[in-house]
Amino acid sequence: MANSKELLLWCVVLVCISGLTEATEKAPSVQVYSRHPISIGKENVLHCFVEGFHPPKINVTLLKNNVEIPEVKQSDLSFKEDWTFQLLTYVSVVPNGKDEYSCRVSHQALKEPKIMKWEQDY
Ligand SMILES: *[C@@H]1O[C@H](CO)[C@@H](O)[C@H](O)[C@H]1NC(C)=O
User: Fold this and answer.
1) Which of 5, 6, 45, 96 supports an S-S bond with 35, CB 3.0-4.6 Å?
2) Which residues lie in coiled coils (predicted)?
3) Ligand 1 closest atom vs CA 107
């Protein structure tokens, strides 16, 4: 028979780990901005910066007129002292004054995906 003391210890460890994970579940905050001031017809880089989330599993999608933009780039996932994570997703775009861009984030701490529009100020 398995050592019941050992079994009990593992149960305690597992409960602690899952408790910790749950306690630190945090929803991401999302910021959408461009690298350069917007100028119509001029190449720019659209950034979606997501931070303050936990656990690290996250899906970040950039949308152009509500259609997913393929082949976006992503920074390495990094974390801060408080164990929350941050991630930068970006893609080069050429604003034409009509296209609408947004960033969609899904994460387990969000009931439904969060969609942030890129507010283009000319
Ligand atoms: C991310 O997307 C994949 C594939 O669509 C899905 O299986 C997964 O559950 C998503 N993860 C999150 C955190 O939403």
Assistant:
1) 45
2) none
3) 13
Instruction: Tell me the mean pLDDT in the region 73-100.
Output: 91
**Whole-Å CA distances, 94 to 2, 26, 35:** 65, 34, 12
Question: Domains, the chain, ranges and CATH?
Answer: 23-117 (2.60.40.10)
Residue partners of 110: CB distance under 8 A and separation at least 6: 27, 28
The pTM of the whole model exceeds 0.85: no
Output the pLDDT for position 22. 53
Instruction: List, in sequence order, every residue forming a beta bridge with 52; answer none if it has no partner.
Output: none
Q: What is the mean pLDDT of residues 20-41?
A: 86
State the distance from the centre of ligand 1 to the C-alpha of 43, rounded, in angstroms.
31
Residues 8 and 71: their CA atoms lie apart, in Å, by: 48
Nearest Cα to 118, choosing from 41, 49, 27, 26? 49
Does residue 107's CB lie within 6 angstroms of at least one atom of ligand 1?
yes
